[in-house]
Write a structure and sequence with these properties.
Strand order of the largest sheet: 5-4-16-15-14-6
CATH architecture of the largest domain: 3-Layer(aba) Sandwich
Cofactor: Mo-bis(molybdopterin guanine dinucleotide)
Pfam family, one: Molydop_binding
Low-confidence stretches: 1-5
InterPro entries: Asp_de-COase-like_dom_sf (IPR009010), MoPterin_dinucl-bd_dom (IPR006657), Mopterin_OxRdtase (IPR006656), Mopterin_OxRdtase_4Fe-4S_dom (IPR006963), Mopterin_OxRdtase_prok_CS (IPR006655), Prok_Mopterin_Oxidored (IPR050612), YoaE_C (IPR037920)
Structural class: alpha/beta
CATH class of the largest domain: Alpha Beta
Number of strands: 25
Helix content: 25-40%
Protein name: Anaerobic selenocysteine-containing dehydrogenase
Largest sheet: 6 strands, mixed
Domain 4Fe-4S Mo/W bis-MGD-type: 11-69
CATH superfamily of the largest domain: Dimethylsulfoxide Reductase, domain 2
Number of helices: 23
CATH topology of the largest domain: Dimethylsulfoxide Reductase, domain 2
């Protein structure tokens, strides 16, 4: 029975932060009972961005903490890989075995044969990033963490020169909030908090741009449902109208942009008729959107991640961002464009991550290409030897990574050793050789930063973990001892010591942050709105991006170079068809959008979330269903060159003709054939700096 060690006393409210991979990073108030158990979770009303509102799945977090299927003891595989035949093993023996297998891999193939693999299952910096310190100390293969943010961050910094923007709380002071490429109702509820406040208090209009009629679109005053990957065409048409109808702020651009005249000439042929043919929107819809933002000085463009997850995703982000510069929206409170504030936090992480230990001669492998890497693709392996040992923390690649069949095939190799440190028996853990049980966020200390807002938040330990589970930091420290690097810089420190060492810029420490609960890092109005210039030396916004020369928050190391068809990227904002366009054999475009009750592969194990989502389904427009003889609820098969899977059909006008939507990353086992939606997604990188094109797939559709 999963019961935390009692902490007898009085009921109290603990303060923390949501640890999951979401830009909201909500400030939390957590009920702690007299016997030390976690109760209901609420959003902190004291935090000006969270504003007392959190998503329902996090409010039910105790369902995860005390779930009967939570991993509670170390396990070692005794049957064939993936057979589910496990034996108990002690922590000491498990850690010894991991270290021994890492040493064997290094002795046979060199240190690069070991590839520590992680991501954002927790956004807590200590528990997430300590694995990097072990990697660099041991000279294991490097890790290019491309899978999520790269196309969006790259596109934004190509224009703005840095990753920050107007205070997202200013949405409440806007007269028009454009929610572009993010289903905020399901994935960033606080965006809706501030947008709806603007509507109620100011009569603001809410515009939503997305590829299907999701819950956020249903809240819109103007809903624009376009074809996947065509966002840049819409953005170009909006800017065309701005120049045509006198809404472009020429004086602003003369001061703050690199080539407004060149942009205007370029856009002369990118009118709403041109864009309508590409996007599937009507000319009237495009004209109405352009007129609304053109007349509304306080237009706030809230640019999400979803529309950047196509092969032209960086281009789409740059084009959408450029609208605010053409209109001069940056000048006004409640105006401008915001994607992420990840560039404003002054946290010192070099020691935590072991950055001074980095050997530039060690190869770097692309996280998104784990399938090709584990199946021996020489290009993905950078022309060097195989990966034969892995430690995986905070991610579930057998479920969430592209080209799932390759990923699974790689994990099933007889010559690879895999240790997984997890909270549940995920699809990845099922394929491991050793599985270690991990703590959850209220059971350890950590520090968080909110890319969707402006706060650094503390997540202190609030309840005692079960006696048999361990933190990520514990595992890294114990392996460092066994592997002979525990005396290197950064090792031997507690979570609290790491947190204090990250905070010198703010002249505080763990205890000071615990008392304050968070730090508001928002730059002042002039800096947030770039009124003293954008993040380039000349202060000019770049309509003409240097696609392979501009620094970016996560630019690939020089040894990797630029990714994808970067030579095809446009000189000025434009629609570029480097997407996986539909063809005669694959007439449908597939987007794998998030649902409301899961977060990537997290929460899919809880009863309420599973019940609310029902089953894996594919959304099909009625016209497409009729043309293919498909009835609602029928089993259909989707496929492409990567594979095929079966799903139940949901016939709905929420989808667009020619576009299929599969919501949520369901466990592979929840699917009819035990294979998930990422069988169909590709691992080829997005130009120019990488990323995975999860919403950019062509498929065929048939009755099963």
């Amino acid at each position: 029975m999963n019961v935390a060690t009692p902490n007898l006393g009085k009921p109290r409210i603990g303060h923390s932060a949501c640890p999951h991979d979401c830009p909201s990073t909500c400030a939390l108030d957590v009920e702690i009972s007299a016997d030390g158990r976690m109760g209901r979770v609420k959003g902190s009303a004291d935090n000006s961005y969270t504003a007392g509102v959190i998503c329902a799945k996090v409010a039910r977090y105790a369902d995860r903490l005390y779930h009967p299927d939570r991993l509670m003891k170390p396990l070692v595989r005794r049957g064939e890989k993936g057979s589910g035949d496990w034996a108990d093993i002690s922590w000491e023996a498990a850690l010894d075995a991991i270290a021994e297998n890492f040493v064997k891999a290094e002795q046979k193939h060199g240190s690069e044969a070991v590839w520590p693999y992680f991501y954002a299952g927790t956004m807590g910096l200590v528990q997430r990033d300590s694995i990097e310190r072990l990697r660099h100390a041991k000279r294991y293969s490097g890790f290019f963490d491309s899978i999520c943010t790269n196309p969006a961050w790259t596109g934004f910094t190509m224009g703005a020169g840095t990753l920050r923007g107007p205070d997202p709380r200013e949405m409440a002071k806007s007269d028009c909030v454009v929610i572009w490429g993010t289903n905020a109702v399901s994935t960033q509820v606080n965006v809706m908090t501030h947008a709806v406040k603007a509507r109620k208090e100011r009569g603001a209009k809410i515009v939503v741009v997305d590829v299907y009629d999701n819950p956020t679109m249903k809240q819109a005053d103007l809903a624009l449902k376009l074809r996947p990957g065509t966002d840049a065409a819409l953005a170009c048409a909006v800017m065309h109208v701005a120049f045509r109808d006198g809404h472009a702020d020429r004086a602003y651009m003369e001061k703050f942009a690199d080539d407004p005249a060149g942009l205007e000439a370029h856009l002369a042929s990118r009118d709403p008729v041109w864009a309508a043919a590409i996007t599937g929107l009507s000319v009237e819809e495009i004209e109405a959107f352009a007129a609304l933002v053109g007349r509304t000085k306080r237009s706030f463009f809230r640019l999400g991640y979803g529309f950047s997850r196509g092969r032209n995703g960086a281009v789409s982000m740059h084009a959408a961002l450029s609208i605010a510069t053409v209109l001069g929206s940056w000048q006004y409170e409640g105006g401008g464009a915001f994607h992420s504030n990840s560039g404003i936090f002054h946290l010192r992480r070099s020691e935590l991550m072991g950055l001074k230990l980095v050997d530039p001669d060690i190869r770097v492998l692309d996280q998104s290409q784990i399938g090709p890497i584990l199946t021996g693709d020489p290009v993905a392996l950078r022309g060097r030897g195989p990966v034969t040992a892995m430690l995986i923390q905070n991610t579930n690649p057998a479920n969430v990574a592209p080209e799932q069949r390759l990923v699974k095939r790689g994990f099933l190799r007889e010559d690879i050793f895999v240790a997984v440190h997890e909270q549940f028996m995920t699809d990845t853990a099922k394929l491991a050789d050793i599985v270690l049980p991990a703590t959850m966020f209220v059971e350890h200390d950590d520090i968080y930063r909110g890319g969707g807002h402006q706060h650094i938040l503390l997540g202190p330990k609030l309840v005692e973990p079960p006696a048999t589970v361990r933190t990520n930091l514990f595992v890294i420290e114990e392996l460092a001892k066994r592997l002979g690097v525990a005396d290197m810089p950064g090792f031997g420190l507690s979570e609290r010591e790491h947190i204090t060492r990250m905070l010198p810029y703010y002249e505080t420490d763990f205890d000071g942050l615990k008392e304050e609960r968070w730090i508001d890092c928002q730059p002042d109005f002039e800096a947030s709105h770039f009124l003293k210039g954008f993040g380039f030396l000349d202060g000019k916004f770049r309509f003409r991006p240097d696609w392979t020369g501009t620094p970016a928050p996560n630019k690939p190391p020089k040894v990797l170079g630029a990714f994808g068809p970067h030579a095809a990227l446009p000189v000025l904002p434009d629609y570029v068809e480097v997407i996986e366009a539909a063809d005669e054999e694959h007439p449908f475009r597939l987007a794998t959008s998030p649902n409301r009750s899961f977060l990537n592969s997290t929460f899919s194990e809880t009863k309420v979330s599973r019940e609310r989502e029902g089953r894996p389904e594919v959304m099909i427009h009625p016209e497409d269903a009729a043309a293919n003889g498909i009835e609602d609820g029928a089993v259909v098969r989707l496929g492409n060159t990567r594979g095929d899977i079966r799903l139940h059909a949901r016939i709905t006008g929420e989808a667009k003709p020619g576009v299929l939507i599969a919501e949520g990353i369901w466990p592979n086992s929840a699917h009819l054939d035990g294979e998930g939606i990422n069988v169909l997604t590709g691992s080829d990188p997005i130009a120019p700096y990488g990323g995975a094109a999860f919403h950019d797939n062509r498929v065929w559709l048939r009755k099963a």
